[in-house]
Amino acid sequence: MDGKITSVDKAVSERMKQFMAHYGYTQVAIAEACNVDVSTLSRYMNNKKPWSSKMLQKIGSVFNVAFLWLRDGIGEMFAEEKAIGKAQFAAFNQMLDANASPVSQNIISGDNYHGSQTINATEGKITALEQKIDAQAQLLSEKDRLIASQQAWLADKDKLIARQEAEIAELRERLKQN
User: Fold this and answer.
1) Among 83, 96, 108, 129, which one has the highest count of C-beta atoms within 10 angstroms of its own C-beta?
2) What is the DSSP code string of the chain?
3) Radius of gyration, alpha carbons of the chain
4) From CA 129, how far away is CA 79, in angstroms rounded?
5) For the segment 13-31, what is each residue's pLDDT rounded down to a tens digit?
6) Which residues 6+ apart lie within 8 Å of 21 measured at CB?
């Protein structure tokens, strides 16, 4: 094992599997395109190695996949690049990471010519987060439904076990009488 695997790493692996299935890519094809060993990609995919930002950036760059979607599940696979250019998106992400800087205050207040693009990107991120919240709410609802179904199944199983135990006790009693 190359490091501690977190639920985030597992979620990234699931998004990678979704991406691969959607476009029909294999681990071999992705590894070759990204110029990494298949075994390295396999360790990432099988949750034996924590995903690195560098690897995710490489995959995003080579396959034109949104880094935030790969890393955090935010937005669509390709949504950010459609809304604004790569360089502007990278600058926007840097601004979010350092939102107290004077430059970012200018961007946030719209005091430069990129202000409207930044606002549009922010609105896109908000929409993506709202979509993620909706998706998680649906997953929670589905989870609750599955739990209720499993609880009903367990209750039925308990009734069956009780009936079988009663039948066994009755058979033992008959054996004693014979």
Assistant:
1) 83
2) --S---HHHHHHHHHHHHHHHHHT--HHHHHHHHT--HHHHHHHHTTSSPPPHHHHHHHHHHHT--HHHHHH--S-SSHHHHHS-HHHHHHHHHHHHTTTSHHHHHHHHT-STTHHHHHHHHHHHHHHHHHHHHHHHHHHHHHHHHHHHHHHHHHHHHHHHHHHHHHHHHHHHHHHH-
3) 26
4) 13
5) 999 998 888 888 899 999 9
6) none
Report d(CA 119, CA 58) in Å as an integer: 27
Which pLDDT tens digit goes with each residue over 107-120?
A: 444 444 444 445 55
* Contact in structure between 45 and 3 (CB atoms under 8 Å): no
Contacts of 80 (CB under 8 A, 6+ apart): 66, 68, 69, 89, 121, 124
Intra-chain end-to-end CA distance of the chain, in Å: 62
Query: What number of CA atoms fall less than 13 Å from residue 153's CA on the CB side?
Result: 6
Cα–Cα distance list, 176 to 38, 162, 169, 172, 173 (Å): 66, 21, 11, 6, 5
Question: How many residues belong to the chain?
Answer: 178
